[in-house]
Amino acid sequence: MTDRMPALLNINGEKVETEISNSDFLLETLRDLGLTSVRGTCGIGICGTCTVLVDGRAISSCITLTALHEGREIVTSEGLVGPNGALDEVQERFVENNAFQCSYCIPAMVLMVRAYLDGTEDPTVEGAREALGGNLCRCGTYPQVLEALEALIPEDPV
Amino acid sequence: MSETFADIPMIDARERVTGAIPMTIDQAMPGMAHVKVVRSPVPHGLIRSIETSEAARMPGVRAVLTGASLAELGVDPYYGGLRNDQPVLAIDKVRHEGEAVALVVADTEAQAEEAAGWIDVDFEELPFVTDAREAMTPEAPPIHDEWPDNDCGTWRLRHGDIETGWALADRVYEAEYTSPPASHVPMEPHVALARFEGDVLEVWTAAQAPYMVHTALKKTFGLPDERLRIKTFNLGGGYGAKGGVKIEPLVACAALAAGCPVRLVLTRPEVFNTLGKHAAHIALRTGVKTDGTIVARRVRAVFNAGAYAVSSPLGAGQAMTRASGPYRIPHVWIDSTARYTNTVPTGPFRGAMTSQLCWAYEQQMDDIAHDLGIDPIEIRRRNLLSDGDEFITGEKMHDVHFDELLDDVTEAIWSRGPADPAPAGRARGRGVAVMIKSTLTPSRSEARLRLDDDGMLTAFCATVEMGQGAGTTLMQMTAAYTGVPIERITIPLPDTFQAPFDTTTASSRATFSMGAAIKDAARKLKDELAGLAEEHLTTTAGELRFEGGTVFRAAAPERAVSYADLLREAELPALEVEGVFQSEGGMATLDPETGQGQASVHWHEGAVAVEIEVDLQTGKIEVLNCHGACYAGRVISPTRVRQQNEGNIIFGLGQALFEELVYDSGQLVNPNLSDYMIPSILDIPKRLTSSAVESLEPDPDVHGVGEMTIPCIAPAIGNALFAATGVRIHDLPMTPERVLRALRAREEAS
Ligand code: FES
Ligand code: FES
C-alpha cells in the first residue's frame, strides 16, 4: 500500500483539496471526486472516453498520474456548463444534432472538440474530425457528431 | 384510430451530452467493499488445488471464495439460463482461459487486487480445442461430460424434398464461408453492485435484461420474488454483451461471503473474456434454374459456442431459420449446430446468428448471378419472398417488404449513374445484400401504469435504455395511447420491485413488445376513465376522445373533464392498470425433425448497398457510399431509426473489415483495444444514408430496427469487391492483407 498524501487540484476553476497516492491515475481521482462524465473504457490511452483538458490540452486521464497535475487547470465536461446551467456551444450543437446514443463516449468528444477549437486558428470540420480520430464510439454516432461539427464550424462555400 | 408521433429528441439529451445521466458504473453503496476475480491462465485444465490462506491474511481482505467454498455458502453454484452449465467460480475444472476461478473481497480495489495476486492455483492441463468443427470430431477433448461430442445444440430443417430440388436444378453451386470470433466492446464495462438489506438481496447491474438476472439469482439463492430486487441504470452500450446473466451471481455471492455491500467493475481484458460473437463455418450448396430461380438449398452451419452454453442451444436454431435468406425456395435442407470449445462463451451479438449466414448466402447469390449472366439486383428480385409466400418453416409470410428495401438501397447507390472512374491503382465497385431475421419468440412484456390524482402518469416497465432511445420512444407511445401529455409522464429506471416482468431488451423487440403492453394497459386505463366520466359526458354523440389529459365526446369538446378531476371526484388517489404482450410459437414449438412451424411472430427485414474503392497496391477497402434500409412497420422516431440503421452499419464495418479475436495455443491474444480495433470516425463511409420502409396498413405492427442493416454490410462490401476486382473473399474480416493475397493469387493464375 502506498501512502496517501494531501493534494491540491484545480478542477473546473475550483481549488479541490483531496488525498492521493503516487500511483493514482487522474481518471480514478476525478471519478472519486464525483466527476463521472470522465469515463474509462480501454485503460490504455486508445479510446478517448477518459479525455480531460489540462491547461487547455486534451489528454487521456487513464494513463497519467494525478500527482503530475497538481497546480494545473483541469477541465471536465461538468466544467463546460456555465454557472446558470448554460451549455458550452459545443455541447449545444451536440444536443441539437442528437449527437449521442448510449452517450458513454460523448462528454469526452465534446472536450476534444473544445480543445481543437481553442487551439486552432482556422478550424475546419475536417480538422475537427481528425482531432476526434482517437475518440471511439461503439454505438456509431459518428454521422450525428459530424453534423454537430458542421453546425459548429460554418465553412465558406467553395 | 392511428396515433401520430412527433420526432422529439431524447428527453435527457442535455444530460447525455454533459455526462450527467446515471449509469451503473457511477453508483456506490454505502460501506461497500471491492471484488477482484482470479482467472484461469490455461484454456482447459483440472484444478488440483487452490491456495488462498496468504490472500486471506492480506490487509483489508474480507472474504476469499473459490468454486469449492461456494457449497459452504449454501448457494446453487451453476447458472446460465438455458443449460445452467456455468459455475459462478470454476468447480474442479476450467474450460477457457480467463474463466473465473476465485475471488477476493477487500476494502479497496487496490487491496483486492494485491490479495488476488497471492492466490495460487495448481492446474493439471488438459488437451484443448478452440475450433468448433474440430470439437465435433471423436478425437476432440470432451469439455462437459454431460454433453457428448461437445454438442451445445443441434437443429435440423427439412422443407420440400431436397433430392427433388437437385433434380430440378440446371446448375448447382457450392462454397464455404467463415466468420471469426468477435467482441461487442460496449464502452461501459460490465459492472454490478450487490448487498443484503435485511433479508432482501439487492443487485444493481449494467444489464439488458433485469428479469433474466432476477430469474437466475432466484435460483442461485432460492429466494422468493419479494426478497430479490434488481435495478438497472442507463447502459453505456449493450449490443448483446449485457443480455442474460453475466457477473451478477458472482457479485451477489461475494456480498454474501463478505457480509457487506460489494462492487465489481470488469477490466477491459475481462470484458473480452466474458462474452463474444460466435465464430461460424457455413457450407452452402444451391441449385438454380438458368433463369436464376433458386430451387434447392442445403446449409451446413457450425457455430462456436465457446466454453458455456449461454444462448447457443437456442441460437443454433434461430440461425437455422435464417440460414437460407429472404428467398422463396421450395426444397431446403439445413443442419445447424453449436459446439462447445475452450474459448470465451459466445451469445447474443448485434445481428448475430444472421450476419454469419448473410455473409454466405448473399455472396453466393452474386456468384450465381455472375455465372448465369444475370444482374445481381435482378436475380434477387426474382427470388425474394413476398406476402403470402411459404417460408422454409412452412409459415405463410406477412408484412414482407423486401422488394421495397431492395429498391431503396439500390436506387440510393446506383441511381447516380455509373461509378466514377477510379484513380490510377484503384478499382471501384458496387454491391448489395438483403437479410431476414426472426425476433425472439415467444416473449412477454408487462407494463404497469399509475395515474395519480394530480394528473401525473408513471409507466413502470423493465425495458432498459441503452442508447436506442427506448425511454423516450416508450414515453411517446404512452402519451399517444393514454392521452396524457408527455410532460406529465415519467418512466423510472427499471427496478423489479416496481416494474413487472419483461423478457429482455434485446432481439430488437422493446418498441414492439413493450409498446404493445403499454397499449394494452392504456386501453384498460381509458376504460376506467370512461366509466368515471359517464355523468360528465351528457351526450352520447361522437366518439369518446382522450386528449391533453382530458376525456370528452368529439361532439362536445367543451365538456371535457380532466383525468385529475375524475380521480379526485371519485376520491381515488391513483388508478393502476397492467397491460401484457405475449407472443406464441417460436423455436420450441417447431417440429424437431423438420423444423416446420411458426418460428417468429414476425420477421425482421433489412438491406444495404455500397460503393467501395479498393487500393490495388495495399488491398485496403474504403467505403465511398453506403445506404441501409429496414422495414419498420411504423416509425415512431425517424432520428432514432436512422441512428440504429447507420450505427449498425458502422458497428458492422468493424467485423467486415478488421475485427477478429485471435487465439494462439488456447490463449486469447488480443483482449484490448490496441490489438482489437473498432471503427473510429475516420473509418466510416464517406457518404452514409439510410431509410425505413413503413407499412401502408392502418395499424401496423411496430417492428424493431436494432439490427437490420448489420448483417448486410459485410456481404455488400464482399460483392462490391467482386464487382471491382473479380476476387471473392470467403473468410472475414476483409483485411488489406487478405484482399491483397487474393488479388495476387488471381494475377498469378491469369
Ligand atoms: S480509457 Fe483512457 S483512453 Fe481509453
Ligand atoms: S454513444 Fe454509445 S459509445 Fe458513443
Report on the structure:
The complex is a heterodimer of chains A (158) and B (750). Chain A has 158 residues and is α+β, with helices and mostly antiparallel strands. Chain A has two domains: 75 residues, Beta-grasp domain (Ubiquitin-like (UB roll), Roll), CATH 3.10.20.30; 70 residues, [2Fe-2S]-binding domain (DNA polymerase, domain 1), CATH 1.10.150.120. Helices cover 32% and strands 17% of the residues of chain A. Chain A has a five-stranded mixed β-sheet with strand order 2-1-5-3-4. In chain A, α3 packs across α6. The mean pLDDT of chain A is 95. With 750 residues, chain B is an alpha+beta fold. Chain B has three domains: 192 residues, Aldehyde oxidase/xanthine dehydrogenase, a/b hammerhead (Aldehyde Oxidoreductase, domain 3, Alpha-Beta Complex); 323 residues, Aldehyde Oxidoreductase, domain 4 (2-Layer Sandwich), CATH 3.30.365.10; 140 residues, Aldehyde Oxidoreductase, domain 4, CATH 3.30.365. In chain B, the strands form eight sheets. In chain B, strands 3-7-1-14-11-12-13 form a seven-stranded mixed β-sheet, sandwiched between helices. Chain B has a five-stranded mixed β-sheet with strand order 9-17-16-15-10, sandwiched between helices. In chain B, strands 18-26-27-30 form a four-stranded mixed β-sheet, sandwiched between helices. In chain B, α11 packs parallel to α18, α14 runs parallel beside α15 and α17 crosses α18. The chains are: A alpha+beta (158), B alpha+beta (750). At the A-B interface, α2, α3, α4 and α6 of A face α1, α4 and α17 of B. The structure holds FE2/S2 (inorganic) cluster (2 copies). One FE2/S2 (inorganic) cluster (FES) sits at the interface of chains A and B.
